[in-house]
Hints:
heterodimer; A: mainly alpha; Rna Polymerase Sigma Factor, Chain: A; 9 helices; elongated; B: alpha+beta; Immunoglobulin-like; Rossmann fold; 6-stranded mixed β-sheet; 5-stranded antiparallel β-sheet; 16 strands; 37% helix
Amino acid sequence: xxxxxxxxxxxxxxxxxxxxxxxxxxxxxxxxxxxxxxxxxxxxxxxxxxxxxxxxxxxxxxxxxxxxxxxxxxxxxxxxxxxxxxxxxxxxxxxxxxxxxxxxxxxxxxxxxxxxxxxxxxxxxxxxxxxxxxxxxxxxxxxxxxxxxxxxxxxxxxxxxxxxxxxxxxxxxxxxxxxx
Amino acid sequence: xxxxxxxxxxxxxxxxxxxxxxxxxxxxxxxxxxxxxxxxxxxxxxxxxxxxxxxxxxxxxxxxxxxxxxxxxxxxxxxxxxxxxxxxxxxxxxxxxxxxxxxxxxxxxxxxxxxxxxxxxxxxxxxxxxxxxxxxxxxxxxxxxxxxxxxxxxxxxxxxxxxxxxxxxxxxxxxxxxxxxxxxxxxxxxxxxxxxxxxxxxxxxxxxxxxxxxxxxxxxxxxxxxxxxxxxxxxxxxxxxxxxxxxxxxxxxxxxxxxxxxxxxxxxxxxxxxxxxxxxxxxxxxxxxxxxxxxxxxxxxxxxxxxxxxxxxxxxxxxxxxxxxxxxxxxxxxxxxxxxxxxxxxxxxxxxxxxxxxxxxxxxxxxxxxxxxxxxxxxxxxxxxxxxxxxxxxxxxxxxxxxxxxxxxxxxxxxxxxxxxxxxxxxxxxxxxxxxxxxxxxxxxxxxxxxxxxxxxxxxxxxxxxxxxxxxxxxxxxxxxxxxxxxxxxxxxxxxxxxxxxxxxxxxxxxxxxxxxxxxxxxxxxxxxxxxxxxxxxxxxxxxxxxxxxxxxxxxxxxxxxxxxxxxxxxxxxxxxxxxxxxxxxxxxxxxxxxxxxxxxxxxxxxxxxxxxxxxxxxxxxxxxxxxxxxxxxxxxxxxxxxxxxxxxxxxxxxxxxxxxxxxxxxxxxxxxxxxxxx
Lengths: 180, 679
């Protein structure tokens, strides 16, 4: 019976401490979280870790949920924010560790070499800026409308439209480069 | 067509997400349920994600950072408060130092505190070390032997190495627990963190001036693409409204100080340029303001020139200014509970009080849950009563902005008397849930009140995390006020003390600038910044169209980059079938028109000045150019060529001028910081 209940209803019940509602909700959305996490990070291992972190944090996060948006919109936002945090930590970490020096250059070279071996998707995604990557993951990967993606990313619909046109431009440039 | 194919390919690849590993799924779901149960058992009250104490945020940030580096959690480990407390002991020295975790200072080496091995540590600490050692952020470190050598390389940076060491100590000792703890309190730091964080909160940790990045980032910025290069023959007239906001510069500063480059949408070049006071010649007596035009070679492009237009507002004698009615509309929602928000706000307003005259009146209205008038209109002379009311403000409850705004306007109207100026100062962290839920409705309301009652509205932004810059800017623009972002007490002093008169008294309203370029002299032009302030050409003469104002004694600066016909720097080829440029081929670069209204007036006045191209450049114009270059570097502008950080620093330093308050040298240092971060 719970299986048919709307996300929002389950969410409110879970926020009030309904264990079964919470269990249904997490099980229902695990694959969704994992899918988006994979699209945002581009790595299976990272996606798994990120998904687990999100699952672990969900009970606490859910308490602050007031059903102001659709549950999935809210959940997507949680995932995107978690991915941003991850990126930030990685960036901070890299900056703290690199000593502004040769090590970072060597690392970038290494990444470049590895990238050759990676598949087209990874290469393409890596060459997009984080904002564009997020946008692509939501609009193409999750098949959201531009308005929905805008709601998740906290930017206007126009910004999403602009970003998608940027993505097109980049892809075109990449294709042209490959053709050389 | 082909790009659609590219998109389709990308979409197909993205849709083909690998199936989740069933074991990982099971583990994650189990962890979720455990945390759910634990949370039900705990007595932590529910709180929104924004209102956690800053120190908790700091610790969570550090823990998150530590934890990311750890292996997949050893789920079997039980929670242990002790492990976390050790973590605190290790980390706090950095906090005392007011230092973000990114750049530990020398006290950090206290880090290797012996960690009493808690039960269960035996679980492969060696592997943990290996994982910790591999900082390669693009590959999630696999526990492999390859990862180990990586730790050697960064060792050159001793500060960084110290951190790594500290983390390694922590990681090998308490790691599985910390991970577990953190799982409980959530990636983005939730209420579950409270019970565990009780211990660290008790430790005396002064508020760091620079806080680590708040994790849930729901900030909104008004964005617009940078103005493109325009061809004079096609579009000879450029029209915009003046802008006195300075929020963008303060946001850029605070972001850089957090150790990150701002995103392009956080940068509004005109607000950065207008942040600085410029020593333009003062207006003739009786004039509201004076324009100063200067022309100089563009620092970043040999083939173009910069035309700087400076407007200097008159500074009426302070004694002559009309009495002032101020309504502080203060956001006391839960998210304001932060020394950098409500705390800083109280200090800022207290700083402002001595600047007011005894007959000025102040009232305080708060909004949160229920809106209320905390202080009835009180003469500024009664400073004790005002300070006491400020002191008593506490944060709590959710935001109900609309009621507060209505009440503030009501109070302001009640205070209004003949010949007095009324202004609402809205202080918020941006969590402006206004009831009038659409921003258009809100801005329309503010504009209506300004027109009806003559009450102005300025917005002061505090804190980061959910700063709604877009709404702030829209409100201030429609309320004919200033939007300023206050991140430090010295910024509060600049906005509320040094420039108080300018911030509170407009001397000219609806100031519109229109420049008509002479195609014989200027083939292409580009307005730097002012994207969100563009006006239609016909709006210039339409007095019904609202525009920005100029405060007493303040300056507004706008910069054009212009390219002469035949220059190598032209970006567009001349049209083969285009008409030959009409008009005089000699002489003027262009013609500057300004429209403005005296405060409260219906009809505008027109000022016209030719731009001859002979106007000499001053240090003021050169510094403005350096700041414009700084802003464009941050935006990743395509117009700068090879011109980079070093050149910006050099130009700013050479044009530093008198700089009595040190604003300009601060900008130079921010440029240096950005240069380092941009590597």
